[in-house]
Amino acid sequence: MTSNSADREPSEGFDWSKYETELGDPEEVAGTANVVDLGAARDRRNRVGDDDQADADDVQDDFDVDAESVDGGPAALGGLVDQADDIPAEILDRQQQRQPILAEWARSGRAFRAAVRHALKDAGYVAAYHAVRTPKYVGKVLIWAPVGLVRGLGRSLHWASAEEGNWELRQAAANKGDAEVWLKLDARRQRQSRWRWWVLGAAAAATTTGAVMLTLGPTWWRYAAVAATLPVLARIGRPADKPLTDRVSHGNRYRKLTAELVRRALTSLQMPAINGPVAKDPNAISFPVEIHRDGPGHLAVVDLPYGVEATEVVARRGKLASAMRLPLDQVWPDVAPGHTGRLALWVGYEPASVMKQPTWPLLNAGQADVFKSFPFGTTPRLDAVHGTLTSRNWLIGGQPGSGKTFALRLLVLAAALDPRTEIRGYELKGVGDFARIAPVMTEYGNGFDDDTLAACFAFIEWLYEECRRRSQRIAHYAKLGKAPENKVTPELASLKGSGLHPLVAWIDEIQELMTSKYGKDAGEILEKVIKLGRALGVILLIGTQIPDKDSLPTGITRNVNTRYCLSVADQTANDMILGTSAYKNGYRATVFVPGDDNSPNDAGWGILRGFGAPGSVKSYYVNTTDAERIVQRAIAARVKAGTMPNPEEQTRDTAPVHDLLGDLARVWPDGEKAAWNETLCALLAELRPDVYTGWEAAQLTTALKPHPAVKVGDVGRRIDGKATTRRGIKHADLLAGITERDRKRPTG
Ligand SMILES: Nc1ncnc2c1ncn2[C@@H]1O[C@H](COP(=O)(O)OP(=O)(O)OP(=O)(O)O)[C@@H](O)[C@H]1O
């Protein structure tokens, strides 16, 4: 005990010796641990001064848990960890969770439409189900209606005689021979029966009148009466175990998510960390939010037993679906925000494979901005998932028919809709999936022959050189304060002639290149491009079918930051694309079944990793005809912006891209009608040092030769009061030169 008292520092926030002295001899206290005199202790506690109040509160805890005062009731769930006073007010405010005023399904147009659609679908299903069986129902009605008529008449007479009411009492009196009681009971029956005969008489009269009126009225009255009466009579006449209509069986179309179902499913996973705690206390699995409708399905947010991570359940999605007796693509467990033990289990009304995906929002209108996100796909709940291109490298992998070419093409289409973006790429399958987008591409190759592979390799080499050129340009703009963080900004990307416009480089079926003689070098260079390009506006998009280390060097897979894994055959392929341990953590694209044109199956479904938590996403479906329509819009936007590539010159400029006239206009000294060449050269070098550094007046004169409108002549100036004349150009001529050049440019 000594070590417990004397050795403890008061600095721990608790003055042990003070309280141990007050409580008496420590040995004694230990020996009588359960027999603390609560009254005396309370008195002592009350004597503690104000200054020591906090410490005294701590001591109170010790008293509250002795044997006499232990509360035998069930422990309260979810109590506060800290006293509310200890938590700053603003955090408490944030933590307050109010129940939404409107039910989940009425809170968004999407959820409301889904709920209405679901209700209408159900109603339509029920109506169609019964309509098909109408002849059978009519037959049953015709059989049971006469029985019902006889049975109904009998029941009415029986009711009117009021025999049933006290029959057993009368019988008992008769058995005993108690005439007086029997007579009293029977008199009571007669009284009851009297008014019932009246009621029955009135009903009979009403029925007769009705029948007479029916004979006098139009024919359809009689049909209507028969149609209304017969089912009622048949209902009375049918045996109790033979309903007239068949039961509309929902079978396993949809199972409403209940807490019990979720608990049963989770315990069926046979995870000791779940089953152990649940066996002791069913509340070990709890539901912080009520199970509610969410889009076209129900969402259960589940707090798993302490120590169980939601990812462990996500990894057992197949077992979970089996426990719920639902198809796999109807059960979507996910990690919920809050803490790692919180699971969001969403169960769709129907399997994702039969749900209709909305069309791509950019299909019919709109432009994209590669610096901003654009719609890429939908979740199983049909929520849109957005992707980005800038600062991204995408790796898209999957087996044949999984939908990777479509997904890659969608990214290229999005890039095409931003007129600033230069697009270059190769499809090494050779079928021309991207041919319709070729008009907006500066470079496009298609095939798996050696020439195409050589061109693709040369393109990769050029890409690396381009990255190097871009890094010099970035350094220059960083010096001018225009590239904070040494990255391409939207402003720099839009600055014509900066050479820093977004460059999308895509290669589909890259395994063809990697397994060729160019493979080793191509892999090494691409790794460098991935590392360098991110900040330089170079966006690499790669599609591959065989993601093993020969077909896709690990240097590439390690460095890409966005991964989209469509249907793959095994864990190795899964983890090659999504990263190590992805499969173990429950991100398994092996669950998707690849499709083809005739049976799409899970084509387009994949796991997207790179934007927040990984999750299942189906890329928007844009077929080739739609792609062509999008390209027409892209062409229009590019013609307007003057960024349409010239199909005749699919070259890879190693010289930095620049536009001399545009650059001169950009650096032109404010308000000056004419300027000397040497002044302009200095300004040009400042704008783009990698191009113009070292230029002299004569070089500018030569460079302007192809533009006859811009005449170089003498320009006079007064320097320190002295008239000086040097070679220079006029602003008006420059503007005329630009107009002339634009006029001659091909319009695509
Ligand atoms: N997002 C999608 N939604 C619906 N169907 C899709 C989607 N993506 C692709 N598909 C269908 O799947 C088929 C195969 O797609 P795609 O050609 O992109 O597959 P792939 O993985 O590139 O196959 P391969 O390696 O054989 O070229 C397409 O013909 C298309 O009908």
Give the key terms.
748 residues, alpha/beta, ten-stranded mixed sheet, four-stranded antiparallel sheet, elongated, disordered N terminus, binds adenosine-5'-triphosphate
What features would you describe in this structure?
The chain is an alpha/beta fold and 748 residues long. Among the domains are: 2-73, no CATH class; 134-237; 374-382 and 397-641, Rossmann fold, CATH 3.40.50; 660-744, Arc Repressor Mutant, subunit A, CATH 1.10.10. The protein has 28 helices and 17 strands. It has a ten-stranded mixed sheet, with helices on both faces. Strands 1-2-4-3 form a four-stranded antiparallel sheet. The chain has a three-stranded antiparallel sheet with strand order 15-17-16. A hairpin with a 1-residue loop joins strand 13 (605-610) and strand 14. Helix 8 (134-161) packs across helix 10 (179-216), helix 24 (660-667) runs antiparallel to helix 28 and helix 25 (677-687) packs across helix 27 (697-703). The longest helix is centred in the first third of the chain and has 38 residues, at 179-216. The protein is elongated and about 150 Å long. The protein binds adenosine-5'-triphosphate (ATP).
